[in-house]
Design goal:
Blueprint (H helix, E strand, L loop, with lengths): L1 H13 L26 E5 L7 E9 L9 H4 L3 E6 L7 E4 L5 E7 L1 E11 L2 E11 L4 E7 L4
Parallel strand pairs: 2-8
Antiparallel strand pairs: 1-8, 2-5, 3-4, 3-6, 6-7
């Protein structure tokens, strides 16, 4: 198995990775959410959702320490997601150890919001994004720690 992975690495490196756009209209980059350039952006990938709902895969990142995925700042962060189109009950959740999260949401405009005191920093951010029924929205969020 490792041989196959090594054989694919040159092919992956040769593929250009488009920049994510705030409007979510581009194609998926290979290493999305691995630099601060991706912070507070999203893109929509065909497939992954069902009917009128879409899958949302997100991740918090930070630039205040040496690691974008520092678990001291991005792990176990409580968040809310609100539907801006029709309102209703908030979705609530908590990020995983690597700052990632997943939700299934109805199509429309949504707002991700978090606020936390982590490792001596005050972290808070609000990001709006779109969900399309039947598709997957990938979102990268700056933990915005000060």
């Amino acid at each position: 198995m490792p041989f196959r992975l090594i054989a694919l690495l040159p092919l992956l490196a040769a593929c250009p990775a488009p920049e994510p756009q705030e409007d979510g209209t581009d194609t998926a980059p290979i290493a999305f959410c691995e630099t601060m350039d991706d912070a507070d952006s999203y893109y929509i990938e065909e497939g992954g959702g069902n009917g009128s709902s879409g899958k949302v895969i997100g991740r918090l990142i930070t630039d205040v320490t040496g690691s974008l995925h520092d678990p001291n700042l991005v792990a176990n962060v409580d968040y809310t997601i609100d539907n801006l189109d029709v309102g209703g009950t908030q979705q609530q959740g908590r990020t995983d150890q690597d700052g990632s999260f997943q939700e299934v949401l109805g199509a429309g405009t949504w707002r991700f919001k978090h606020s936390a005191e982590k490792s001596g920093y005050s972290c808070a951010n609000t990001v709006d994004f779109e969900v399309e029924g039947g598709n997957t929205t990938w979102i990268c969020i700056d933990a915005n720690c000060q």
